[in-house]
Backbone:
């Protein structure tokens, strides 16, 4: 379609950082590029006159200082330019900028005609258009959602959209055998097993009719692994044992038996809810968004963030989101190109993409991203993991929700498009070489500003008591949201009432679309006028989709035609119990027989450990996230006077005017899973709890979340590892008195590269949240005195199995760290006591890299020297210097204790073992390590800092910089 | 004495209004936040205020350039109320995205124009920076001789002017109250002390009257005692306000003269 084109460029002589970044990206793809100029392209319907176009440019599109523009009439084509790249959203992909142009037209009192956008790059290079196009696809453009065009492409506005297919389609199941049923499931992308298909066949057989397509789709969404967790809630045969529902028999049982009084709402709502103060609760949810992020890292992580924020907005009657978390597990960014299987993106591209996604959704939302982790392992190459979390504040009287018959079904927020169709079922399947092409519809990009507006609206409407219930549209879209709210009631939905991004959507597409930024409210009819007013004030679109009733049926209509009539009881309770085999075989491993390192070899080992990407500074990521908005942050992710050191988590005072706070932390180390999933799981919990305590959190007022990502659990060995991990986790949680309040699993992280299967190492992320009375009484991991004592708390053992140290020497080993439960609990409680008594001025937990890394990080964050003697380390046996430095034994802390507090510190620790390793030496700029009378090495802090910061400095901006 | 009325403008996508309103209240103002749509319905809320604040965030998603749609809304729909407010001597503060909106509106630096464009690094940057006030700056409500640390968090904070001479002249005229400085206290263009590459380390601008002031850093995230706790306090229990409080205290006490 012909249209006006407005091309905005930076004036000659003005900087063009977007062009510079494009040049870097093309060079990284192997091109020789001297310069790139960026172009912002805007398209407008030809019905506008030149004056209108010029007014739009003058008023908003073109900055008088920085920009110049070229206007091309609908009849003109830009002059031939073989070096020109044009990148345009694919049809149907959300284009928020084009939407904002509509608002600009309105403000300029111009007709709101169709608009569009593109990005252009004028590339100075000797490469052919084809080479440019190929290189652009490797980073500059995302071909899942964007088209790359070269030369002078005939860019136009998208057409008006097609006619929807409104036929009501029956899917006859009667008489089909297993093969026939399976075919329907596979071809429809339904991810239903043969047994489930048989159950559906028999249900509709009883009803004497065939299911319609929309009914079958609805059941597939509701029964997806993603929504129902059927593996964990099913029956598992584990050796001689039969486990009924691992979630209730293990995880929920811990919570029930602990019966902690701070738990308000657990496992029933979108998020776990615990008490915060007299007026409010705090709620928390962590989600996985692995599969979409593998195909399209930017869109996947961004919509993951958007989704988990909506989870919090949909908890109770709507909580106010106060902080976000993110954890990634990826293959190392320096993976060789030939080691990346076909169909997978290079890990560096995945890393850049997921970071940008979290940044470009989280920052505009005005929610600080305060806490996170990144773990690298080659086996995440096909299945990168993206965990996103959110924390919200929810008034105590807004925790309960229940739709009432007669309530209107109101959707607010974004419009529905063809995006994200089959996301729930897609995420329940294994990825393979072709996933990128077949599943692109499951991916989409988000529009954070729309969600921000919804966030403002929801909380205002909540405070005015305008609705009875709220649910987010996540996986499964309206089908899940309305289906969930209607459980135990009934509902009648008019699908033609949903606002659409473009014409042409079939009713079933509207019903299961996973278009972002939508929430469903259950609103009494009398409150609609006021809700409409609030929506107008907040610029939020809303629509009335129908009503809840008490029929027990979910009726779907389009323009008065019946498309589906589902039995809600069957939908929610009809799923046959899953049966799975599980088996655990101990891997055949042994500790390596390496020559012990000593002296300066150990200094080199420390540098190598600090350079390991699992230990190295994540500053390149952290600095791109807004971690300060909402003015709640008391301890930020980077600490110390120059903010170079890694913190143990974060501390927030989420209510302005109150010092009451939450302490957040996480723990995970999937590498231990290669030796024993049980060790991996308990170490994840111990690490999360150490990080809570190290910051001044209260271990007796801490709740936890479990997020599993595992390989294909149809493989009994995979499932066996998961059962083993769960049991060890639950046993420790019971001892630590930490209830699980929410969790999520992602169980199909096996990549099929032809005949080769790549399963991720079993990975459990434990997120912990502690509520404390006063954030000003917390501490961080940066020493503050000139000469304080350095105390090591807890026992060091011969546990180098799975350590980063052995990894740097090419070994895995067998002696993986285990948690001594009784000792672990004592250490946590006593340390918390010592910190509460203000006898500790800095505290750091010992995790990957052990004592050596904790000491180095003390020095890096504070810029103060340390002088320590390993002979003073408490241990359970004689250990070499190498082992004391690098063992990753659990339940240990490094503390800075001022000289005048040492006695108190000792008294508070009671029977917990600790040793005085040495002192802070602020007059020296080295980490000096002795073993008895022998000096092993002295490492300058500047050199340690450089090692720590260089590995993940992806844009080479940190090196040599302080602050 | 009656406390001054402070209005915090919330365009769609603005997200720092809550903490900004709280900081103003804490400094003694009768502060309230109004959605832009509410101001359109009742522009008198602007005219009746003594302090007008354009807070941080991503107004209209910054889809057409940082702050530009916010500026367009003000110019096309609320211009006369804004003029009335300014004629009555009202004080204006723009923070981050709000500063970008004031620059896009042409209210800063005035009479010259400026632009705020993508950081030299090419991406968003969240970090604390050192700031120092220039000698005899013209801002009506900022103390002289200030040295303070504040967080920045932006992707488009690099000021551009018609020519380098304009930047020099604005500094000479006292219209660049706060500048990014290095550890020795010298204005700098070098990353990371200067997070965006702005010329002469310019982090803020005021108009010739000194009543309109905007800055890229966020005083609204650095006014409570615990906000700057990481700066090296020996023990917990910080009780001193963080440095950004001086800006809210300044604007509120100065505006008392208008009440």
Residues:
């Amino acid at each position: 379609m012909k249209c006006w084109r407005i091309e905005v460029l930076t004036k000659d002589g003005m900087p063009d950082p977007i062009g510079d970044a494009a040049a870097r990206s093309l060079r990284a793809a192997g091109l020789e590029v001297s310069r790139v100029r960026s172009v912002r392209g805007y398209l407008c319907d030809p019905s506008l006159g030149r004056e209108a176009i010029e007014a739009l440019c003058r008023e908003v599109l073109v900055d008088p200082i920085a920009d110049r523009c070229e206007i091309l009439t609908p009849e003109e084509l830009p002059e031939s330019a073989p070096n020109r790249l044009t990148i345009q959203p694919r049809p149907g992909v959300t284009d928020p900028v084009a939407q904002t142009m509509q608002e600009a037209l309105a403000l300029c009192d111009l007709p709101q005609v169709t608009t569009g956008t593109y990005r252009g790059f004028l590339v100075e290079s000797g490469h052919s258009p084809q080479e440019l196009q190929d290189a652009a696809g490797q980073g500059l453009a995302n071909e899942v959602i964007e088209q790359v065009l070269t030369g002078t492409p005939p860019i136009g506005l998208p057409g008006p959209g097609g006619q929807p297919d409104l036929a009501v389609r029956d899917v006859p199941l009667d008489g089909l055998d297993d093969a026939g049923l399976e075919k329907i499931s596979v071809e429809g992308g339904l991810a239903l097993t043969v047994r489930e298909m048989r159950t559906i066949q028999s249900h509709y057989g009883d009803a004497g009719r065939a299911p319609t397509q929309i009914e079958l789709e609805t059941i597939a969404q509701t029964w997806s692994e993603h929504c129902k967790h059927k593996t964990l809630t099913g029956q598992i045969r584990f050796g001689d044992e039969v486990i009924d529902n691992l979630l209730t028999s293990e995880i929920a049982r811990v919570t029930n038996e602990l019966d902690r009084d701070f738990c308000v709402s657990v496992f029933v709502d979108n998020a776990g809810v615990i008490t915060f103060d007299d007026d409010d609760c705090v709620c928390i949810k962590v989600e996985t968004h692995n599969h979409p992020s593998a195909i399209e890292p930017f869109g996947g992580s961004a919509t993951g963030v958007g989704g988990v924020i909506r989870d919090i907005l949909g908890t109770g009657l709507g909580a106010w989101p106060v902080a976000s978390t993110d954890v990634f597990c990826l293959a190392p960014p320096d993976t060789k190109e030939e080691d990346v299987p076909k169909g997978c993106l290079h890990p560096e591209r995945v890393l850049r993409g997921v970071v940008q996604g979290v940044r470009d959704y989280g920052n505009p939302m005005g929610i600080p991203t305060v806490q996170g982790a990144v773990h690298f392992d080659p086996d995440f190459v096909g299945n990168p993991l993206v965990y996103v979390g959110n924390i919200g504040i929810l008034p105590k009287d807004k925790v309960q929700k229940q739709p009432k018959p007669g309530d209107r079904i109101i959707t607010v927020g974004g419009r529905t498009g063809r995006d994200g169709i089959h996301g729930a079922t897609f995420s329940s399947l294994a990825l393979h070489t072709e996933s990128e092409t077949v599943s692109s519809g499951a991916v989409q990009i988000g529009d954070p500003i729309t969600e921000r507006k919804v966030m403002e609206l929801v909380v205002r409407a909540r405070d005015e008591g305008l609705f009875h219930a709220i649910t987010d549209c996540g996986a499964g879209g309206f089908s899940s949201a309305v289906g969930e709210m209607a459980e135990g009631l009934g509902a009648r939905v008019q699908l033609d009432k949903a606002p659409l991004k473009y014409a042409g959507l079939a009713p079933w597409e509207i019903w299961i679309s996973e278009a972002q930024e939508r929430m469903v409210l259950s609103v009494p009819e009398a409150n609609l006028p006021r809700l409409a007013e609030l929506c107008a004030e907040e610029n939020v679109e809303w629509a009335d989709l129908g009503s809840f009733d008490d029929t027990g049926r979910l009726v779907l209509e389009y323009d008065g035609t019946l498309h589906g009539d589902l039995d809600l009881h069957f939908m929610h309770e009809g799923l046959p119990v899953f049966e799975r085999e599980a088996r655990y075989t101990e891997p055949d491993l042994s500790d390596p027989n390496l020559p012990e390192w000593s002296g300066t070899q150990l200094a080199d080992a420390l540098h190598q450990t600090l350079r390991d990407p699992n230990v190295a500074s994540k500053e390149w990521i952290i600095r791109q996230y807004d971690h300060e908005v909402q003015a709640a942050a008391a301890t930020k992710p980077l600490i110390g006077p120059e903010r170079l050191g890694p913190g143990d988590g974060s501390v927030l005072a989420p209510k302005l005017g109150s010092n009451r706070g939450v302490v957040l932390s996480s723990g995970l180390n999937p590498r231990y899973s290669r030796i024993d999933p049980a060790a991996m799981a308990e170490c994840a919990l111990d690490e999360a709890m150490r990080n809570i305590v190290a910051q001044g959190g209260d271990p007796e007022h801490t709740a936890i979340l479990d997020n599993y990502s595992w390989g294909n659990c149809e493989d009994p060995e995979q499932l066996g590892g998961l059962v083993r991990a769960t049991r060890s986790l639950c046993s420790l949680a019971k001892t630590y008195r930490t209830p699980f309040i929410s969790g999520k699993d992602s169980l199909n992280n096996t990549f099929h590269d032809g005949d080769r299967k790549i399963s991720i190492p079993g990975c459990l992320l434990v997120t912990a949240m502690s509520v404390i009375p006063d954030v000003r009484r917390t501490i961080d991991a940066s020493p503050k005195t000139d000469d304080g004592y350095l105390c090591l708390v807890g026992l060091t053992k011969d546990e180098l199995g799975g350590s980063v140290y052995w990894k740097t020497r090419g070994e895995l080993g067998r002696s993986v760290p285990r948690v001594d439960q009784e000792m672990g609990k004592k250490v946590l409680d006593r340390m918390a006591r010592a910190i509460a008594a203000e006898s500790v001025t800095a505290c750091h937990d010992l995790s990957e890299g052990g004592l050596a890394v904790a000491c180095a990080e003390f020095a890096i964050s504070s810029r103060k020297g340390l002088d320590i003697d390993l002979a003073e380390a408490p241990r359970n046996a004689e250990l070499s210097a190498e082992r004391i430095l690098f063992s990753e034994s659990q339940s240990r802390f490094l503390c800075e204790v001022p000289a005048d507090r040492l006695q108190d510190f000792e008294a508070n620790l009671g029977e917990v073992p600790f040793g005085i390793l040495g002192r802070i030496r602020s007059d020296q700029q080295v980490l000096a390590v002795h073993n008895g009378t022998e000096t092993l090495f002295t490492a300058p802090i500047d050199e340690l800092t450089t090692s720590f910061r260089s590995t993940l400095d992806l844009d080479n901006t940190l090196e040599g910089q302080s602050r | 004495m009656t406390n001054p009325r402070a209005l915090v403008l919330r365009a769609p996508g603005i997200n720092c209004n809550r903490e900004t309103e709280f900081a103003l209240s804490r400094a003694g103002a009768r502060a309230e936040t109004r959605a832009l749509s509410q101001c359109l319905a009742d522009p008198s809320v602007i005219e009746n205020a003594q302090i007008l604040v354009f807070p941080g965030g991503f107004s209209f998603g910054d889809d057409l350039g940082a702050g530009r749609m916010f500026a367009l809304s003000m110019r096309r729909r609320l211009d006369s109320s804004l003029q009335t407010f300014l004629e009555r001597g009202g004080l204006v503060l723009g923070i981050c995205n709000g500063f970008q909106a004031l620059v896009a509106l042409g209210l800063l630096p005035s009479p010259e124009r400026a632009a705020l464009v993508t950081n030299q690094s090419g991406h968003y940057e969240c970090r604390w920076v050192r700031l120092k006030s220039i000698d005899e700056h013209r801002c009506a409500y900022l103390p002289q001789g200030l040295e303070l640390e504040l967080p920045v968090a932006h992707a488009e904070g690099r000021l551009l002017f018609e020519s380098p001479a304009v930047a020099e002249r604005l500094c000479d005229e006292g219209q660049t109250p706060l500048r990014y400085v290095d550890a020795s206290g010298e204005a700098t263009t070098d990353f990371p002390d200067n997070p965006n590459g702005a010329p002469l380390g310019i982090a803020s601008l005021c108009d010739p009257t000194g009543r309109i002031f905007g800055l890229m850093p966020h005083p609204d995230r650095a006014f409570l005692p615990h906000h700057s706790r990481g700066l090296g306090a020996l023990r917990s229990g910080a009780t001193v306000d963080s440095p950004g409080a001086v800006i809210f205290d300044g604007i509120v006490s100065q505006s008392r003269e208008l009440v």
